[in-house]
Amino acid sequence: MLKIKDLKVSVEGKEILRGINLDIKPGEIHAIMGPNGSGKSTLSHVLAGKDEYEVDSGSIEFCGEDLLDMEIDERAIAGIFLAFQYPVEIPGVSNANFLKSMVNSVRKARGEEEMNAMEMLKYLRAKTKLVELDQALLKRSLNEGFSGGEKKRNEMLQMAVLEPKLGILDETDSGLDIDALRIVANAVNQLRTKDRSFLIVTHYQRLLDYIVPDYVHVLYNGQIVKTGDKNLALELEKRGYDWIKEEVDGVSA
Amino acid sequence: MATAIDNKSAEIVAKYRILFDLKEQQLNGQKSHPLQAIRQQAIERLESMGFPARKDEDYKYTYVTKIAKQSFSEGTGSIIGENVVKAASFGDMDAFQLVFVNGVLNQELSNFDNQMDGLTISDLKTAYDNADTQALVENALTNELGLNAFVALNTALSHGGTFIHVSKGTAVDKPIHLTNITVSGGSAIMTSPQILVVAEESSEVSVIETYSAINDGTYFTNALSRIMVGKNAHVHHYKLQNESLAAFQINNTIAIQERDSTYSSYVLDLGGKTVRNNLSSHLQSSGTNTNLYGVYLAKGDQHIDNQSFIDHAHPHCESNELYKGIIDDKGRGVFNGKVNVRQDAQKTNAFQQNSSLVLSNTAQMDSKPQLEIFADDVKCSHGATIGQMDETSIYYLRTRGMNLEQARSMLQFAFVAEVLENFQLESVKEKALAMMKEKLG
B406–A105: do the CB atoms touch at under 8 Å? Predict the structure, then answer.
């Protein structure tokens, strides 16, 4: 589904990703862990298409297409969804209207039929239940005045209604209390299908207690330096990141 | 008393004296009516003060005399279809409707008969001829005549006018909609809509002015509204301006507020080539509430200037002002909000905010919040922001599948929609939103 080959990315002349290789197959869940500043968020946003990143070399193939050749919205329509670490507050746009126009513009672009008001209502109600979000939040302005947990659940709601092929969670778990974390994990588990894949970017192992990944990668200094299964996450939780840094940098403490 | 006005200004004033004399000749028997004496007083006032000069600080960004300099003829009624009136109305909202075509009241298209008890709608002459309201009309029309040249000009040239009187304790159950439609495209005409609203003690009324045009021709609307808000009364005053893009509008609104009264102004400016609004609220006593909400969208070479003035002279008064707008292409916006808090005006709450989005390199916005406080126990704040669209928000929306155009228009719409949330009449809000959406594309 997603094939990243030797991806090198810089921001304002500074190299952040220094040769990433990653292969995600349909239905797989990959976790990317790593210390702060290792390039985790950069990778998420490069996949979503943020402008300020300069791809110096390498390639990204998504479902057989050249992802780097696509506009931000074309990527969303093709099936990439990025849950933001810091969801943007947009006063004046009601959450419900936002969800409706989002769903219909994507459906239209995907060549599917647009939903009428009744279908939309039912659809949104079901998805809202999935992420245990208070219906009242649909009437409020998008993310404005939402708590941290509400914002992240709202991201999960958007993911649920857009039904992407690949869901990317950019540190969705950071700062969440255990209840909100469970809800986020539950949403991912329910959306997990044999065709839908996830890339879970996280700093903490805790989320992976609830979402069991097929692969765990450690990103450090812009490169994937270690890959394993869920046990690698547990080991990182126990030992921290220093032993990885030592291994890679070749210096002992 | 007045210093001699310069030659240029005198020349311009002379043109309007000719218009004035022409109108007077057509009056025949009405020439001796006392209202004509007030008009006479107004034209003389204009002759002594002249039009604002370019160096005049209040007109620094908008050289209104350039408008006055052009030649306009008097507007006469024209035949328009009911569909035009319908398009300018608010869906199926029930209202007392007065339709003015080229500034002349069209009885057939209007519908303000069967007025309710406690409500009188008439022209100003009828109101003057009524012994009960004569003094009221006379005082109101001569008050603030020297505020600026356009107040005097309106008073001098306006015939007919609209008088709305709401008796003590009356809550008017339907809004009053003054529908101004100009048929443009022929020779440039000038209209002088004049409104006098008197809301007596503890009454409540909503007045809506709309301005629209058939064809995209040049004309000049010089409007004047006087709103007298009695003790504990509440006036909601809406203005939805969608003039032709080649038209000029100067709008003077003077609200006079008695004790514990509320005046709320809701303004949407979408049309016009050059638009200048002078909105002022004069607080006569304590306990008043003043809400000024405004939205402006200037594209192409439109120029929209909003001036407001709230004079806090008494304690325990509250004012709340929120103006937001979007300037694109070669458009230009001006905001100048003066709030005075005099020494006696303790416990004043005054809030003012002006925010603009400037979308192109050739667009320009000048914002000047002026808060002058002489009292020491007050809560006042003001702010002005001028910015561009937030790139992070655009990116966020695009990751949800919206294209650049959709994302931009959604954000622009949201930016100004915040102001419209304050519109009390749902139908007016809906209509204003739809008009805005159409303009933003």
Answer: yes
Instruction: Let me know the angle formed at the C-alpha of B199 by B198 and B204, rounded to the nearest 5 degrees.
Output: 145
pLDDT in tens, chain B (441 residues): 445 677 788 889 999 999 999 989 888 777 889 999 999 999 999 999 999 887 888 888 888 888 888 889 888 888 899 999 999 999 889 999 999 999 999 999 999 987 899 999 999 999 999 999 999 999 999 988 989 999 999 999 998 999 999 999 999 999 999 999 999 888 899 999 999 999 999 999 999 999 999 999 999 999 999 999 999 999 999 999 999 999 999 999 999 999 999 999 999 999 999 999 999 999 999 999 999 999 999 999 999 999 999 999 999 999 999 999 999 999 999 999 999 999 999 999 999 999 999 999 999 999 999 999 999 999 999 999 999 999 999 999 999 999 999 999 999 999 998 899 999 999 999 999 999 989 987
**At A18, is the secondary structure helix, strand, or coil?**
strand
Shared domain for B164 and B303, answered yes or no, is yes
Flag whether B297 is in a domain. Answer: yes
Would strands A215-220 and A223-228 be described as parallel, antiparallel, or unpaired?
antiparallel
User: Residue holding tokens 């991201």?
Assistant: A155
Cα–Cα distance between A42 and B362 in angstroms, integer?
Answer: 35
B425, B379: one domain = no
Tokens of A84: 């933001």
Instruction: Give the number of domains in chain B.
Output: 2
Flag whether residue A53 sits within 8 Å of chain B, measured between CB atoms.
no
Q: Position A154: which residue type?
A: N
Residue A51 CB neighbours (<10 A): 11
Whether A82 contacts chain B with CB within 8 A = yes
Cα distance from N-terminal residue to C-terminal residue, chain A: 40
Q: Rounded to an integer, what distance in angstroms lies between the CA atom of residue B402 and that of residue A142?
A: 15
Identify whether residues B367 and B401 lie together within a single domain.
Answer: no
- Other beta carbons within 10 angstroms of residue B295's beta carbon come to 25
Q: Give domain status of residue B47, yes or no.
A: no
**CATH architecture for residues A2-249:** 3-Layer(aba) Sandwich (3.40)
Name the token pair of B220: 């000049």
Q: Which of B392, B403, B417 sits opposite A92 (nearest CB)?
A: B417
Rounded-to-10 torsion of CA B433, B434, B439, B441: 110
Question: Which chain B residue has its CA at the smallest distance from A142's CA?
Answer: B414
Phi, psi angles (nearest 5°) of residue B62: -135, 105
Instruction: Say if CB B199 and CB B230 are below 8 A apart.
Output: yes
Residue B23, domain member (yes or no): no
B400 touches chain A (CB under 8 A): yes
Evaluate whether residue B9 is within a structural domain: no
- List the domain range (segments joined by +) for residue B426: 391-441
